[in-house]
Amino acid sequence: MRKNRLRLVGVLAAVLVATGIGSPAQASHKQPTLADLAERHGRYFGSATDNPELTDTAYKALLGSEFDMITPGNGMKWYATEPQQGVFDWTNGDEIVDLARSKHQRVRAHTLVWHSQLPSWLTGREWTAGELRAVLKKHIQTEVRHYRGKVYSWDVVNEAFNEDGTYRETLWYKTLGPGYIADALRWAHQADPHAKLYVNDYNIEAVGPKSDAYYALAKELKAQRVPLDGIGLQAHLALQYGYPTTLEDNLRRFSRLGLDTALTEVDVRMILPATDEKLAQQADWYRDLTEACLAVRRCVGVTVWDYTDKYSWIPAFFPGEGAALPWDEQLLPKPAYFAIRDALK
Ligand code: XIL
Questions:
Q1: Residue nearest to atom 15 of ligand 1 (CA)
Q2: Where is the GH10 domain (predicted)?
Q3: Is 150 within the bounds of a domain?
């Protein structure tokens, strides 16, 4: 009898917490997070973050609660991790991985082979193919080994193609030829056989010459048994260029090759000032892209390229544009946030 009454009290307390009746702290836990909603579909909902903004406690609280996947925006790039040849610095990457782990979040690691944000010791001289191969292998294997068992996936190669689907003439391509992509994937796989290995790029959301190049590459790599697990579609979208309406079809064709896909760096920028109309259109786009991922079985999740306009990279890189993320500069949710929730419900 007494036992039953205790059980009843327990159930009542649970109901009060679940419905948000109780202390304000309990009430704020009532709403499922984007991560909770995504998990019901077997997906994740992630955000990029960067080391300087981790001193912002309100920012950090939302980052730690609303998402279940984290990407370091800069901390794992070559300039940060191997600033001098053979001298590795894990400070920034570790800070973000440790924070994510403390919040039971997984990590999409970013990025190993890219033409941008390279240290000057690497770009400031000529390399023979033999030398550069050794430098690349060492960088990849040292970094992947360091994070082995701690990250869900790696963006192994980033932005390898031009808009017309030809190979981008990077340091890597010019010195090593197109085989550097398969090599990089094999080296990364040796260093962490459990990490999901991705190639990642922008403007490949729609079917077109650039995404066709990835489709052809993926097919070829699969045929050669190269360890490629997924294609990352950055999805840096802009209202003035129109929505990529073939996104879902595009995700599906990669799935059919036996690959995962992910939207890895989502933002939807607009020409400033933001108006109610533009914010409503932005919300529609966030809803649509979330629904596209949910509609394709092997689309594993969505990551926004940071979650608040306060720390977006857009204003610095696209002058006159901004307001690209689901939370505003005051960390208040925008229509886009509610649209994502709708899509996930
Ligand atoms: C951006 C970062 O957000 C900025 O802080 C940095 O100054 C430049 O790079 N594609 C990518 C990301 O793969 O690494 C880029 O991140 C955005 C475009």
A1: 73
A2: 31-343
A3: yes
pLDDT per position as a tens digit, 109-139: 999 999 999 999 999 999 999 999 999 999 9
For the chain, what is the domain count?
1
Q: How far is the CA of 160 from the centre of ligand 1 (A)?
A: 15
In angstroms, the CA 68 to CA 61 distance is 13
| 205 tagged catalytic | no
The answer to whether the predicted template modeling score (pTM) of the entire model surpasses 0.90 is yes
Structural domain including 316 reads 2-17+27-344
pLDDT at residue 29, as a whole number: 52
Neighbour-count burial of 321, counting CB atoms closer than 10 A to its CB (0-12 exposed, 13-18 middle, 19+ buried): middle
pLDDT digits (tens, 9 = 90+) for 138-161: 999 999 999 999 999 999 999 999
The response to whether residue 265 sits with its C-beta less than 6 Å from ligand 1 reads yes
The backbone torsions φ and ψ at residue 230, rounded to the nearest 5 degrees and listed phi first, read -160, 165
**Is 73 touching ligand 1 by the criterion CB < 6 Å?**
yes
Q: Tell me: pLDDT of 9 over 70.
A: no
Tokens 């060492």 belong to residue? 138
Q: Say if 140 falls within a structural domain.
A: yes
Q: At 179, which CATH number?
A: 3.20.20.80
Name the residue with the closest Cα to ligand 1, atom 5: 313
Residue 22 lies in a domain: no
Q: Annotated catalytic, 265?
A: yes
Residue 275's contacts (CB-CB under 8 Å, 6 or more residues apart) are none
Going by alpha carbons, the residue nearest to atom 12 of ligand 1 is 73
